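Changelog-adjacent note: as of this version, every example in the card shows the full chain rather than a window. The one below runs 455 residues end to end.
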Amino acid sequence: MLVPNVFIWSFTAVLLSIGMAGCASAPHSHAAPGSGGQNSNPSMPGAKRHAVAQVPPYPIKKPLIATVLGTPKKLQADLPSDVNFSIRTLNPLVNRKTPPTLRYARPLKYLLAAQDHPAPLAFVIAGTGDSARSSKCVLLSRVLYQVGYSVACLPSPTSVTFMLGAATHPVPGRMPADVHDLYRLMKIVRDDLSGTLDITGYSLTGWSLGATQAAFLAHYDASRHVFNFQHVLLLNPAVSVWASVGRMDTLIKKNLPGGYSALPEFLAQVLGNIQQSQSSDQPLQFSQDTLFQAYQKGTFNHKQIGAIVGLAFRLSLADMAYAADVMTHSDVIVPKNVSPGAYDSLGTYFARSFRMTFASYIDQLLLPYWNRDGRHLSRSRLIAEDDLHQIAPFLAADKNIAVFTNADDPILDTDEVGFLRSTFGKRARIRPYGGHMGNLDYKKTIHAIQDYFSP
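Full-length structure tokens:
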């Protein structure tokens, strides 16, 4: 990440360890393929999961807290530990020089979980800022592998890896362009696996921003018939991308009014609270269970939780904005005549990146990029292009597309939840609680996903 200060690195580690749901979760994590879960037979595509009627209800009824704390371990699903994981490297899809400060994001990679027999391939589109090695890529790969799928998890177009190696236009945020590049990457992955796997069909899922992009990808494929997806599942999608990210900007404004300058004090406060909640003879540890226990002891207040959620998104934006500015020489964050070296101090540039809201990203980077050379893209058109209302008739008519989300998801408002209910009808599974992806690894959620993807 573009992060020069130790306290920012530490805070990012906290955000990554709590598995922020589709926000900034583990962009550089190396989740051990063989860790966690019980062994099970992955070669039964039609198998239904065991009964979950006795599973206690999801316990966290405050959306921001659910987003941060996720699912208590005792309520998480058991998933296979013997998944055949590999990281596959692709040649760049575009001819682009890599700025020295972005070399960490090379090369272009995707995560593969491969069956050793003929099987359908499921594509997973990562959430905002996430690489193909994020914790939720690993989780969803295990989930689908268990019911007989091979799985290819792709980086988000908002990740620096994708921007460098796969983006025709390295300023993410315009849906048609990002979907076009994702579709091209999917075809490259299909070709890369042609001599390796016996693929019997294709399915698609994604979480958060990746879920919204999956909806547009399904619409894109409907007129091209390259994949003819058998199942498409949208996990906690944004309805209007820019409305959702605006809500994350509001969390920063309300809960961290000092912005960048308030980060050191905020970090020290959060770490101190966690340490106080643990035994004095134990080393400081970060996990969902640790944070859940700290919350139960009253360690965190609602303002701190709101700041954590907002910061996860803002740190992803800081990476994305810095990379876009450097690659396009936009003169917004780094002056045009400056080329930062791999070991140069980036403190000034990070501060500028962090202070950039999603609204200012549109106005200062995204729109100017698309309006260079005399072209004209209006702000209203840009925002409309990223809204599921644009393809509502398709989503309502295609019976192979479903949505799973939560009524209290903080990236949605009441009208958007209503839009998902009315558009998808019986294909919408909307739980009352869970926040944004907080209940993804909850047993009932996992089993519902597996039942949906089972033939």
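Structural remarks: The chain has two domains: 36-236+383-453, 244-378.
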